[in-house]
Please model this.
Amino acid sequence: MILLRRLLGDVLRRQRQRQGRTLREVSSSARVSLGYLSEVERGQKEASSELLSSICDALDVRMSELMREVSDELALAELAASAAASDTVPAPVRPKLNSVSVTSLAGVPEDRVTIKSPADVVDVVAA
Model:
């Protein structure tokens, strides 16, 4: 069974570690106990939306970015679980992106735009 709280905790931990910050620093900024933040990161506690908002503020990360990364992780975990259930070896999984005209991205030349992952893609309203 895929646990959302575990995926969320993994993503929060990665965000914190990318910044080179300690649990103590983030828990202090977020005004949440060190132990509770640790349990959230380990997927042992469900975080409320208010708590997630505080943690995101402390990490200077938009909650939508956090949830997008969690969603990508969940999609990969679901594919892996369904592949394991059917006893097949899946081909490498790559999230499918909708095609986007890069010339419509604020006039940025096409050769200057790099999209490495779905998290790099922002909502674009078609003209």
